[in-house]
Design the sequence.
């Protein structure tokens, strides 16, 4: 049984989950429309970027509607984001850009998408596990964003992180094309959530 001290925290987490869920449902409906929009009307890459921007606003709104959640930056990130956006907009700078992070809780993804500049979000893609495509709403959103799926070889104990090499070779062609066009690649190289960020897990494909 939950203690009297943990009960309020559990209620607040539930309220946030409901808020985020409702906003994601709206996001999913719009993303579904984006998926059925023909390329001749709106180019695929533009639809994917807009789907990412929409999720940026959905995640940011969920945080804004949850005043009990405080986001405190470790230092001034303004100059860092300005440098990143400047690199994206500098067509003469052909160096690829990668955004790499630790993955400690689920909130990592929400915070990154909600707090990063729109110019960065629009150009970014990341790796996700292919099993997420079967999830209601989230699968639609991931498809609309054009994210890169990782096909893990399933095993009963769920601890096998080896990948389908043939499927990943095809996906890598999409990743390479994205980078060559000036796209940003974001990923959590550990491939799964790590509750102890001081100790890195082995790097692998996907999240």
Sequence:
């Amino acid at each position: 049984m939950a203690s009297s001290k943990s009960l309020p925290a559990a209620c607040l987490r539930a309220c946030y989950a409901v808020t985020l869920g409702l906003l994601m449902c709206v996001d999913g409906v719009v993303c579904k429309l984006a998926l059925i929009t023909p390329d001749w009307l709106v180019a695929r890459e533009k639809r994917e970027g807009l789907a990412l921007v929409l999720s940026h606003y959905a995640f940011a709104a969920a945080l804004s509607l949850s005043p009990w959640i405080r986001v405190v930056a470790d230092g001034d990130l303004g100059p860092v984001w300005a440098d990143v956006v400047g690199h994206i907009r500098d067509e003469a700078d052909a160096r690829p850009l990668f955004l790499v992070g630790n993955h400690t809780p689920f909130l990592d993804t929400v915070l990154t998408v909600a707090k990063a500049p729109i110019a960065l979000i629009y150009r970014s893609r990341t790796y996700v596990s292919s099993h997420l495509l079967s999830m209601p709403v989230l699968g639609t959103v991931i498809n609309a964003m054009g994210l890169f799926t990782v096909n893990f070889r399933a095993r009963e104990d769920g601890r096998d992180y080896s990948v389908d090499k043939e499927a990943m070779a095809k996906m890598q062609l999409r990743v390479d094309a994205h980078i060559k066009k000036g796209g940003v690649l974001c990923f959590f190289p550990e491939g799964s959530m790590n509750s102890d960020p001081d100790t890195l897990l082995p790097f692998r494909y996907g999240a």
Remarks:
- The first strand starts at residue 97 and ends at 100.
- Residues 6-36 form the longest helix (31 residues).
- The beta strands are 97-100, 124-129, 148-150, 184-187.
- Residues 31 and 144 are 6 Å apart (CA to CA).
